[in-house]
Amino acid sequence: MRRKSGEIILGGIELGKVCRVSGDAKLVMYEEGGEVQDALFISTAPVRGFEKMVIGKSPFFVVEAVMRICGLCHASHGIAAAEAIENAIGVKPPKNGVLLREALGLINRIQSHLLEFLMVVPDLVVPEEREKLILRLIDFHTKIGDFLLKLGGP
Question: Whose CA is closest to 110, among 79, 147, 66?
Answer without folding.
Answer: 147
